[in-house]
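Sync notes, pocket subgroup
Present: LS, DG
LS reminded everyone that the earlier model was apo-only. Rerun requested with S-adenosylmethionine included. Inputs:
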Amino acid sequence: MVVDERAKWNDRYTAEGAVDRPPGALVDALPHLPTEGRALEIAGGLGAGARLLADHGLDVVLADISSVALAKASRLAQAAGRPIATLAVDFRTEPFPHGPWQVITCFHYLDRPLLAALAGHLAPGGVAVVGIATVTNLERNPRPGRQFLLERGELGELLADLEVIAYDEQWSGRGVHEARFVGRRGDEEGDPQGA
Ligand SMILES: C[S@@+](CC[C@H](N)C(=O)[O-])C[C@H]1O[C@@H](n2cnc3c(N)ncnc32)[C@H](O)[C@@H]1O
């Protein structure tokens, strides 16, 4: 059966109850992030992470497949006095948002080709922060299902083009087994894929 991802996520965000709190991996990574420049939050849902990045001083674009989530995120950001830009995009089928970016973040959205190409969208010296649950999470939580989970050690391999600032895989304070990566683009090249 073909799943309409946009409709699925719009339905979820139309129903009340979607969690809107900043990813713990982002909270922990903030000291490593620049305080100015462009930031892209990939698949950021209701935008708690994007608002935190805006608070940090960054000029944020929140990109997600769900127009419902983006509309709610926009309202929440306005109400908090931290406006953000939003972009409706299906990362599986549409071009990556035009870079380069000083910061790219991605939490609990697993798209292996996207992660493997992330370094090419960062400005030189730019920082990526990624946090995604691993298969070990299934030992305590039935969801998300295995197709949404990283293998052990996999995140470091996918992001091997970045210089590692911090990387670990462990149970978070929220009871989720996560791989968390913070890395920097060290080279001086441009943005071949975003240009
Ligand atoms: C599990 S939620 C994670 C939300 C947020 N990053 C967090 O950690 O709380 C997954 C998010 O990915 C978005 N998403 C799913 N498939 C997508 C796609 N193909 N392109 C862009 N966003 C997508 C969903 O709309 C949803 O907001």
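DG: The CA atoms of residues 61 and 85 lie 5 Å apart.
LS: The pocket of S-adenosylmethionine is lined by residues 5, 9, 23, 43-45, 64-66, 69, 89-92, 107-109 (CB under 6 Å).
Action: DG to write up.
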